[in-house]
TrEMBL record:
GO terms for cellular component: cytoplasm. This is Catalase. Gene3D superfamilies: Catalase core domain. Residues 37-58, 541-553 have a biased composition (Polar residues). One of its GO terms (biological process) is response to hydrogen peroxide. Belongs to the catalase family. It comes from Hymenobacter swuensis DY53. Decomposes hydrogen peroxide into water and oxygen; serves to protect cells from the toxic effects of hydrogen peroxide. One of its GO terms (molecular function) is heme binding. The lineage of its organism: Bacteria, Pseudomonadati, Bacteroidota, Cytophagia, Cytophagales.
Amino acid sequence: MEDKENQPHNSQPGNGTGTAVTGAGTAHDGRTAAGEQAQTLTTRQGHPVTDNQNSRTVGNRGPVTLENYQLLEKISHFDRERIPERVVHARGAGAHGVFTAYGTVGGESIEKYTRAKLFNTKGKETPVFVRFSSVIHGGHSPETLRDPRGFAVKFYTEDGNWDLVGNNLKVFFIRDALKFPDMVHSLKPDPVTNRQDGGRIFDFMSNTPESVHMLTFLFSPWGIPANYRQMEGSGVNTYKWVNKEGEAQLIKYHWVPKQGVKNLTQPEADAIQATNFNHATQDLYDAIEAGNFPEWEFQVQMMPDGEHPELDFDPLDDTKIWPEDQFPMLPVGKMVLNRNPENYFAEVEQVAFGTGVLVDGLDFSDDKMLQGRTFSYSDTQRYRVGTNYLQLPINAPKKHVATNQRDGQMTFHVDTAPNQNPHVNYEPSSLNGLTESSKAGKDHEPMYNAPLIRQKISRHGEVDFAQAGARWRKHDEREKTDLINNLTDALSAATTEIQNRMVELFTKCDSDYGQRLRQSLDKAAKNPSPATSRYMGRRVTNGQNGQATTGAAVSQPEMASQEK
């Protein structure tokens, strides 16, 4: 009898029997459950995936629940895809510094809104370590490549560490962490060719309409900061502040460089890369070494906790910006970087951040991306650096630590307290073990009355294009031209169907935006050239039969002149 169980997957038709299985089974087992086809997505456990777009949440705004097995399996596997380099944010530079609090926010005492001690006194200083990074590209990639930039700050506060893990851009591609591995996979090199491919990137993005806002930033000069000193930072996600009464405010965090903001067009980046692929690391190190310490003002946007149905966007949606005319930027402190690392590996490479690392007075919102990141980031660090990564000097809080955690690989010391009974590594105990702390204020107790479901947030659809259109109109002509050229380069590697879908999405943002991209793509199809957007190897066009064909080489400056 023919051994169908061991045939390749694509040679076995979906039988949809759903019957109990026998036999050993292999990675290419062709048996399917009822309703499945050969290309039906499943988990590693073989469970058919009926919704790969939305985490399971309490109501469509969140919060995310811990029993999301699909999310946990998907994210935890993603966290372990690289050894030992970070899966994302691999290329980085860092520096030590100090954060100084103003003690106020919007002219009021900051204690009205948060009981976090690092903010509460004018002039209070908190040591910090900052790691800047690129997101998608590898550890030795040029710093001129188009990519979001990480802006992660570790505050060593009197109440323990606070990690604010953000990017240079204020928005993101997606709003549900379930899609994070998919997004990164589309941006990473093709698993077969090991080359980044605009066709793959825009295949994903064209099926993810909320990405258009981020793309309008990323493919403009904002996608290539000139250096780290002249780069904005943003927490991207929505957080909460909590005061002593347990009352909460929704918060967005921002770093504003006092050196001003400077970005690069693609030709400017190409010129730098021709002679230096470490330019941003060099610039940061040399500036601090020379005593030209970079500074950022720390600003926040606030709104009362709640759903805010009066807004046309959801304040928990990280693909959206909070308009500054409605929610002004309020200064709360400043940061100065004044000391370079003594050893790159020990500090910059081994520093480990996590969005779940908050101190009292700071809290999570129900932002779906934030909740997924909160699991993912620290899970990644335990895998990448080790179970005891918090015992490394760069990660250890600058205060007393006493835990009941023991053992694990590379244990350096035991977190026992003075005079603690060493036999007791549990709590509660009446044998001189560790005890709980008193509370600094009332607990914040958000209320939920919603079904546990898998759905998109309610405010999506046309609203996803409005802010991207506003961003397009805010770009100056130089930025618009660079944006269109870079999108053309990247989209030239995509099929005609994907190109048309992206043009349609950008047209929904702004008719001029879509029209200019359509015209540029049409010209590129008649006169193809190598892509320079750094998201694929060579520009390609689509032949009459829909097959990709490689075009003749034309430099970007020549292409730009032809488009005028």
